Amino acid sequence: MKFFVDTADTDAIAELNDLGMVDGVTTNPSLILKSGRDILEVTKEICEMVAGPVSAEVVATEADDMIAEGRKLAEIAPNIAVKVPLTWAGLKACKVISGEGHMVNVTLCFSANQALLAAKAGATFISPFIGRLDDLNLDGMDLISDIRQIYDNYDFKTEILAASIRSANHMSQAALIGADVATAPPNVIKAMASHVLTDKGLDAFLKDWAKTGQKIL
Ligand code: G3P
């Protein structure tokens, strides 16, 4: 499973990128707000740091305006994936922008039917939002499973990009189901390294080591 980092924080991206943990980056208007940076400037900087796809989201709601915004965002760098919302207008924009040879990430997907439409419209990525379904006492992972089955049934090439990931468990569950990509905030990716038994075991080893009175260096 590929790891995308869901942030516009360039320091956080750089830290994970140095560890080889970053296959791409996703941003959205809320993350641009959080960064406090200009969208074109920060997105360009991220595209220069990361070799993989960098999603940048349109904010227009009509197809023609989305297409114009998408073209402008795509000019930033060759690794831009234009992000459009899963509305009828967004599907129209997806068809046109992907037809022009750009990657398109169709976001705000909450149903298998929406994912089916995005694949038909030529989406490079479909972004089902797990956490926001869980927030409603639904199971976001069921949606990932359903989309996996539908895409496999018909050999759709659209990649499933599990989004709105809130916990390390979401990452392993998405990987078990076979999501192609998961995008997560930096703190969630770091949390994947934590285990209480690792901490406990390390503590015991260090205590015993101290008793040996030895040094390695
Ligand atoms: O990838 C989508 C993500 O940014 C939304 O996450 O936690 O706001 O639902 P969240």
How many beta-strand segments?
8
Hetero groups bound?
SN-glycerol-3-phosphate
Choose one word for the global shape: globular
- Computed CA radius of gyration, to the nearest angstrom: 20 Å
Runs in which pLDDT lies below 50 for 5 or more consecutive residues are: none
The computed structural class is alpha/beta
**How many helical stretches?**
11
What is the H/E order? EHEHHEHEHEHEHHEHEHH
Instruction: Give the helix proportion (percent range).
Output: 40-55%
Strand order across the largest sheet: 1-2-3-4-5-6-7-8
**Average pLDDT:** 98
Instruction: Indicate the proportion of strand residues.
Output: 15-25%
Q: Report the major sheet.
A: 8 strands, parallel, barrel
**N-end to C-end Cα span:** 38 Å
SSE inventory with pairings:
Layout: E1 2-6, H1 10-18, E2 24-26, H2 29-35, H3 39-49, E3 54-57, H4 63-74, E4 80-85, H5 88-99, E5 103-109, H6 112-120, E6 125-128, H7 130-134, H8 140-154, E7 159-162, H9 168-177, E8 181-184, H10 186-191, H11 196-212
Bound molecules: SN-glycerol-3-phosphate.
SN-glycerol-3-phosphate binds next to helix 7.
